[in-house]
Design brief:
It is built from 22 helices and 26 strands. With 708 residues, it is of the alpha+beta class.
């Protein structure tokens, strides 16, 4: 048996190594098989992936394994690169399997990525790298160019650009092309990053300028063809001087060597020169858009919300002003107000001692001492002793944010990463600043929750004082908006299925300003590739929705057709769905630096469609019941745990976006059109349901890594 060196060249045979692999196949099913592997080599000296040939013994199937060693896999950027390759391969399989175009790309057999040494399995490649061909004959040149442009048109139609096309990634078997290099995939319209080697990567890509464009691939393909025709590499920044001397190149690739993407022809134009009508036939071969009916349902739901008048919140709009400075204690949930005679500070032994501020004349020192002080709450004499940070009582009514979901949904991890993102400065691009309400309590939260999770440790369930396990106070911060106004923001973990004391629960829910409903995909989505996660956690798909959602929604007071509390629905643990459209698109989006209402509605529409299609309407009950509700994807950890730890550490993705949406709905972040339009869109523009653009289709963007 031989192994593959670089992009397909043979190396000396060695005795095969036998092992057993357990992996997920593209359909989502699990497969276990013995395998024999040959020797291993680097696929590319500048990239971490390794490659080796193999034989799956249960079917006698030849394969190629692309993998990371444990040392390389400890680097999140290397894992992201392998994830990007897997996402691209799976997307192309999903779209092209069973069509005449499938052989143009590697056929993925399976993958196992949430492990110490992640890997992909491909069917054995066809042909040899074009770089091993010295000069190609004229008749083969046309077939080679046609197949290459076919592949580029298919990629363009899916909103994907392969940035590493070169003689090493284009294989030729004498009759047809197979295009590898899927690790270099990026989405059309994303910011360019430096990738590839000259002269095969276009000048703009080599410099990392502008946005990814399908015509980037045209430059690369033209350079590969030039080398096959002439036997030498072309210039790195312009058309070859002898282009006119080569008929095939001059006829088909005029303009392809323009240093700017805008000056090059699109892949479809070049394909139609080589095979008239082929671009149109490709479009007809792509599966129909299954998401359209769900996008239309989303647009109709928003239209109904826009038509419904906003109801007056329970207690009237001035309820907070009539409170006389009272706030709800985050522990016992009774009302409390500042009492200068009940203040305490901790001593060197962390014991509470009374604080008398009347003798502190210096206002700056008094303010500093008060910030570290707490007040003993005696609102409920039967409740265990507890203390409230003074700043929580001195900046008006806190904005309360409650996480809702069953205990298995990952709320604690999501909330921890959300707060960690705030303390890392995630709110600053939006004109917000933060302070801890109580430095000592915040330091304890960081030490006990944030740092262990960032180091890859699975967190235990949130503890703390609460109402019989119903509402657990987790953390509070002081948020200063762009106008200089300060407001406490308090975070609660809400076990909605445990709402047993109606009076206290209703009192708490009356004071809730924002709700985050966390959807567990393992509970909601009957997708085959989630079966292993369900088996591990002992879960089954629940077609009736999350019990906690229904319980909370039923207890919230309602004065009109919709509930008026601001809400966000989060499809959590989205790493489990990172290769599933449309999750693959949104997880690859860069963190926003400004809130775009149109983009927020687009994400809401996509998540709504996914849940409506696969989970059913019961899982969308919060969106249907609450007038102002956005939908998001988020991953608190980036992958599955392995024996109590996350192999590459916990890498959060898009954890802050749900909170940004809630803050915008409450006016802490100024957004175009105002908070109301941000939540439900505008009319009539947002009522139109656009057809799916290539950038919305599946695939995987590359997160991290350079090959310059």
């Amino acid at each position: 048996m031989t192994s593959t060196s670089q992009r397909g060249g043979p190396v000396a045979p060695d005795s095969p190594r036998r092992t057993t692999l357990a992996f997920t196949v593209p359909s989502g099913q699990h497969r276990v098989t013995p395998v024999r592997f040959g020797p291993e080599s680097r696929r590319d000296p500048l990239l971490p992936q390794r490659i080796r040939n193999g034989m799956l013994d249960d079917e006698g199937q030849k394969c190629v394994q692309v993998r990371l060693t444990a040392a390389d896999a400890a680097n999140p950027a290397a894992r992201a690169l392998l994830d990007a390759e897997a996402g691209t391969a799976l997307h192309l399989h999903r779209v092209l399997d069973g069509t005449e175009y499938a052989p143009l790309f590697p056929r993925i057999i399976g993958y196992e990525l949430d492990t110490a040494e992640p890997y992909l399995l491909y069917a054995a490649p066809r042909g040899e790298p074009a770089g091993l061909i010295h000069v190609m004959g004229a008749s083969d040149q046309r077939v080679f160019a046609r197949d290459l442009m076919l592949a580029l048109c298919l990629l363009e139609g899916q909103g994907l650009v392969l940035r590493g096309i070169s003689p090493a990634t284009v294989l030729w078997d004498g009759t047809s092309v197979q295009l590898w290099g899927l690790e270099g995939a990026a989405r059309t319209g994303r910011a360019r990053t430096r990738w590839g080697r000259a002269p095969y990567c276009p000048p703009e890509q080599r410099r990392g300028e502008g946005l990814v464009d399908p015509r980037d691939m045209v430059w690369s393909a033209a350079q590969v063809l030039y080398q096959l025709v002439t036997g030498r590499a072309g210039p790195t920044d312009r058309a070859p001087a002898d282009l006119a001397a080569h008929r095939v190149l001059a006829e088909t690739l005029r303009g392809a060597f323009d240093p700017l993407a805008a000056g090059r022809p699109a892949p479809a134009r070049l394909l139609d020169l080589l095979k008239p009508g082929a671009a149109r036939r490709i479009a007809l071969a792509v599966p129909a858009d299954e998401a359209r009916p769900h996008r239309e349902a989303f647009a109709q739901a928003l239209d109904l919300k826009r038509q419904a008048p906003a109801a007056e919140p329970p207690g009237g709009p001035a309820a907070a002003d009539r409170s006389g400075g009272e706030v709800i204690c985050p522990y016992c949930l009774e009302t409390i107000q500042l009492d200068l005679g009940a203040l305490f500070v901790t001593d060197s032994r962390m014991q509470y001692k009374p604080l008398n501020v009347s003798g502190i004349g210096n206002p700056l020192r008094r303010q500093d001492v008060m910030r570290g002080a707490v007040q003993k709450c005696t609102a409920d004499p039967e409740f265990p002793e507890h203390f409230i940070p003074v700043p929580y009582l001195t900046y008006g009514r806190p904005l309360t944010v409650a996480m809702v979901g069953q205990s298995s949904t990952g709320k604690s991890h999501l909330l921890t990463q959300m707060i960690a993102a705030i303390t890392d400065g995630g709110l600053e691009p939006f004109g917000l600043k933060w302070q801890s309400v109580n430095p000592e309590q915040h330091a304890r939260f960081v030490r006990d929750r944030v740092q262990p999770l960032r180091n890859g440790k699975v967190l235990s369930h949130t503890g703390g004082v609460g109402l019989e396990g119903f509402a657990r106070f987790v953390e509070s911060l002081l948020i200063t908006d762009a106008r200089g106004q300060v407001r406490p923001v308090a975070f609660f973990d809400l076990g909605g299925e445990d709402l047993v004391r109606t009076d206290a629960a209703l009192r708490f829910l009356l004071g809730v300003d924002a709700l985050v409903f966390v959807v567990d995909p393992a509970l909601a989505l009957p997708l085959p590739h989630l079966d292993r996660a369900r088996d591990r956690w002992g879960l089954e798909v629940n077609r009736d929705g999350d019990l906690a959602f229904g319980t909370v929604l039923d207890r919230l007071p309602k004065n009109g057709p919709y509930l008026e509390v601001a809400a966000a629905m989060v499809l959590g643990k989205a790493d489990l769905l990172r290769f599933q459209p449309p999750v693959d698109r949104w997880l690859g989006e860069a963190p926003p630096t400004a809130l775009d209402p149109a983009l927020m509605l687009e994400e809401s529409r996509d998540v709504y469609g996914l849940l409506r299609h696969h989970a059913g309407q019961a899982w969308l009950r919060p969106f249907d019941a609450i007038r102002r509700c956005t939908l998001h994807v988020a991953s608190a950890t980036g992958g599955l745990e392995d024996r109590g730890r996350y192999p590459a550490g916990a890498g959060p993705r898009r954890v802050l976006e749900p909170l940004l949406s809630l803050l915008a709905m409450h006016g802490l972040i100024d957004v175009q059109g105002g908070a109301e339009a941000f939540a439900v869109g505008t009319t009539p523009a947002m009522e139109a349901v656009p057809s799916q653009s290539p950038s919305e289709a599946g695939g995987a963007g590359v997160a991290g890594g350079e090959a310059e």
